[in-house]
TrEMBL record:
GO terms for molecular function: catalytic activity; molybdenum ion binding; pyridoxal phosphate binding. PANTHER family: METAL-SULFUR CLUSTER BIOSYNTHESIS PROTEINS YUAD-RELATED, MOSC DOMAIN-CONTAINING PROTEIN. Residues 22-172 form the MOSC domain. It comes from the Bacteria. SUPFAM superfamilies: PK beta-barrel domain-like. Signal peptide: none annotated. It comes from Cryobacterium mannosilyticum. Pfam families: MOSC (PF03473). PROSITE patterns: MOSC. This is MOSC domain-containing protein. InterPro entries: MoCF_Sase_C (IPR005302), MOSC_domain (IPR052716), Pyrv_Knase-like_insert_dom_sf (IPR011037).
Length: 184
């Protein structure tokens, strides 16, 4: 939990090209059903280079990538140096355990924007090109033998708006059965 007791946006990032890291910017504009304006992964259908090769007409469930800043704190303790945007996320959060949210949870970002969580990000091998050995810290196995993915969550924009650092985040859980996140 954030010491202030608030769930907040730490940083926002976007890149108009498919590169591993995204530069931090002062604000981003989320467009309903599309994603982050000006970002290479925005679109109603898949934009991720690997997913496009499988089915370019598939709906884009990875319009927005969110990572908790607490992950960067953990990585720093392990000797890595990772700043917001460097793992390719659009929104860096603080105060929310993103990977434990159920499928369909909605994050109200700032005054207007709403992102619905679609699943976990499965980190790709490019992470080791960014910093050697980092992949092993982002995908591991827990004591029960379950795979744990820490590279954040993906979502779709269900209501547009502008998002900036220091914006508050409100979590809205889905009604009914709470389903765990799978990989998207």
């Amino acid at each position: 939990m954030n010491p202030s007791g608030q769930n907040t946006v730490v940083s926002v990032s976007r890149d108009d090209r498919h590169r591993f890291s995204k530069p931090a910017v002062g604000s981003i504009r989320l467009i309903e059903g599309f994603g982050v304006e000006g970002d290479a992964h925005a679109g109603a259908t898949v934009q991720h280079r690997y997913l496009v090769t499988r089915d370019p007409s598939a709906p884009n469930l990875t319009q927005v990538h969110l990572i908790p800043a607490e992950l960067f704190d953990e990585l720093t303790a392990l000797g890595y140096q990772v700043a917001p945007g460097e793992l390719g996320e659009n929104v860096t959060t603080r105060g929310i355990d993103l990977i434990t949210l159920p499928l369909g949870a909605r994050l109200h970002l700032g005054d207007d924007a709403v992102v619905q969580i679609t699943g976990l990000r499965s980190p790709c091998s490019e992470i080791n090109g960014f910093q050697k050995g980092l992949m092993k810290t982002l995908i591991s196995t827990d004591a029960a033998g379950r795979v744990v993915r820490k590279a954040g969550v993906m979502g779709i924009v269900v209501q547009g708006g502008t998002v900036a650092p220091h914006d508050r985040i409100r979590v809205e859980l889905p009604a009914g059965e709470q389903l765990p996140l799978g990989v998207v």
